[in-house]
Specification:
It comes from Polluticaenibacter yanchengensis. With 381 residues, the chain is mostly beta strands. It contains six helices and 26 strands. Helix content is 13%, strand content 40%.
């Protein structure tokens, strides 16, 4: 998805809430009637209209849930009343029913920040970057210690940097990412696919009342976390259930830092792993060997005990940029997987950072990940 910079138009209603009660909303989802899995993409075209009004920028949320309760979430921008994307149901998926819920969040990407120090700063420099290029870079005003970032959309995760425009000390701030907070859906639609690998699967419409109830649940980003907690699962078990990819679930060893300062006291995760797992000094190097099923050509690895351990951060290959911006206080757990599913004879060091109710935005961070919109084509596996 290309970078989109928007000039938002002031309308007669606000994106902070629902359109007026008498507004007539028209929401349609167009896809194929059937799908051949795994070789065919599900192409999604959404249209969001409000009678007699120009369609405001908004967000299309898509949630997929299978029979086992596994959930995938994605979101695309709605611009000029339209959103387009595609979903690839990979061959790794198990056969069964997959329900797809679409809903409109009546808000567009925005970040709201607040400076925490007593000294008043009138302006801050903001950058949102993926390391290779900047999606957003600007000096913006600060009023009453508050600032906001709007009118920008970018694909995937990026890093947010906040500092004074001059070469001064770093500011201490907290941020709220608007699209990751609870909202009220203004429209919804649902489909179901019975996936049988290597066969054509018909796409059926779901009951409207069922869809309305489910998207209300999904509109609370902590709904699943709370439900699993009530079922007796620990915070780490809930995290693993919601955020850890199946390839990384079966660990040889897992270290839990939710209620432990042991990692911070070690000074680095390398030092911690040296003492608590490898019993020897380790270093991080770069390796060009490509892993099976992963498109990245460069990987960070530790070579020890005549074996290579590939680093992953939140299910993705760890990059130098990730490593330079990673704070120990943000690390929730580290998994050691001795038998890599990607390359025989290698292992994995999988690092996971705080998310959901455990995420802490209340401290200064040189760079912190901020989720934008999903890429136009999303792979479900």
């Amino acid at each position: 998805m290309r970078l989109i910079i928007l000039s938002l138009v002031t309308l007669s209603y606000s994106l902070f809430g629902l359109p007026a009660a008498n507004a007539q909303i028209n929401f349609t989802i167009k896809t194929q009637d059937s799908l051949y899995v795994p070789n065919e993409l599900l192409n999604v075209h959404a249209e969001f209209k409000i009678k007699d009004k120009a369609a405001p920028p908004a967000t299309l949320n898509v949630t997929i849930e299978n029979d086992n309760g596994t959930i995938w979430r994605m979101r695309w921008p709605i611009i000029d009343g339209k959103a387009d994307g595609s979903i690839n149901f990979s061959e790794e998926l198990k056969n069964g029913n997959y329900k797809i819920y679409y809903d409109v969040q009546p808000r567009f990407f925005a970040i709201y920040g607040q400076l925490l120090q007593n000294k008043l700063v009138n302006q801050v420099y903001i950058a949102i970057t993926n390391g290779a290029s900047n999606y957003y870079e600007k000096n913006i005003p600060v009023k009453n210690n508050k600032f906001s970032i709007q009118k920008v959309a970018y694909p995937g995760d990026a890093y947010l940097y906040v500092r004074p425009p001059a070469k001064q000390n770093n500011v201490i701030y907290t941020v709220d990412t608007w699209l990751d907070s609870t909202y009220t859906p203004v429209a919804s639609y649902g489909q179901q696919i019975n996936i049988k690998q290597g066969a054509v699967s018909k796409i059926n419409k779901l009951d409207a009342k069922l869809v309305t109830a489910k998207v209300q649940e999904f509109a609370n980003p902590y709904h699943n976390w709370q439900a699993l907690n009530k079922a007796g699962m620990s915070d780490l078990e809930v995290y693993d259930s919601l955020f850890v990819h199946p390839n990384f679930k079966k660990a040889t060893k897992q270290f839990d830092f939710i209620k432990s300062d042991s990692l911070i006291n070690a000074g680095s995760f390398e030092t911690y792993l040296e003492k608590n797992y490898f019993n020897r000094k380790i270093t991080i190097a770069e390796e060009e060997n490509r892993l099976k099923g992963i498109r990245n050509s460069l990987f960070l690895v530790t070579r020890t005990n005549k074996k290579s351990y590939f680093y992953f951060l939140d299910n993705n290959p760890l990059t130098w940029t990730d490593l330079n911006n990673l704070l120990l206080i943000d690390i929730l757990s580290i998994k050691i997987i001795e038998n890599s599913p990607f390359k025989d004879g290698t292992g994995i060091i999988a690092i996971y950072t705080k998310a959901g109710v455990l995420k802490d935005n209340g401290i200064y961070k040189a760079g912190q990940k901020i989720k934008g919109y999903d890429h136009q084509s999303v792979n479900i596996q």
